[in-house]
Design a protein that fits this description.
The chain has a five-stranded parallel sheet, sandwiched between helices. The longest helix is centred in the C-terminal third of the chain and has 17 residues. It is of the alpha/beta class. It has one domain: Flavodoxin domain (Rossmann fold), CATH 3.40.50. 42% of the residues lie in helices and 17% in strands. Belongs to the NAD(P)H dehydrogenase (quinone) family.
Length: 191
């Protein structure tokens, strides 16, 4: 069985939103499938924005960073759940990633060598949106998701990366329920 990290990337830590339900459904399915699960809710974290390269490469990271890095190191599979806001991930999730994916953590050495220290992990990215998912994927090109996949996850060695796009979340309770069931099955399978 796998060690799975679920990163709930919705910036609202109140926990009464659809992304929270999806993260809980995935985690419940994974636990039912015998997997070890840890959940990080970035909405509950005090995440600030980085303002300089010096802040990113040196200095003391915020308190949440060591625990997040340890959770990523111990995970075999990482699941990101977030809503599509202005065509991309919420700014708080991006800021969290900038803090956590510091150069030394991902394998960028001071001499310029890059070792991709996060190899051997897979990922699933679950994105919710009001528009139909095919419109995001084919009409808009899923550019922000492609960038996250290629320029962050695969770049640091995390592969394969699978996507689950859940569109029309504001139009149908039946569609929302079907997606919760689908995500729970993905969790049970550890995929």
């Amino acid at each position: 069985m796998a060690s799975i990290l679920v990163v709930l990337g919705h910036p609202d830590g109140a926990g009464r939103h659809y992304c929270d339900g999806l993260a809980q459904a995935y985690a419940a399915g994974a636990r039912a499938g015998g997997h070890q699960v840890e959940v990080i809710d970035i909405g509950a974290e005090a995440v600030s924005f980085l303002h300089s390269r010096a802040e990113w490469t040196g200095g003391d990271p915020p308190d949440f960073v060591p625990a997040a890095q340890a959770a990523i190191r111990s995970a075999e599979h990482i699941v990101f759940v977030y809503p599509l806001w202005l065509g991309s991930m919420p700014a708080k999730l991006k800021a969290w990633l900038e803090h956590v994916m510091r150069p030394r953590f991902v394998g960028l050495e001071a001499d310029g060598r890059f070792r991709r220290l996060l190899r051997g992990r897979s990922a699933r990215v679950i994105v919710t949106m009001a528009m139909p998912a095919p419109a995001y994927r084919f009409w808009f090109g899923a550019f922000s998701l492609r960038s996250f996949d290629r320029n962050v996850l695969r770049f640091v060695g995390i592969a394969p990366v699978r996507w689950t796009l859940i569109g029309g979340v504001e139009t149908s309770e039946a569609r929302r329920a079907q997606a919760l069931d689908r995500v729970m099955r993905l969790g049970r399978a550890g995929r």
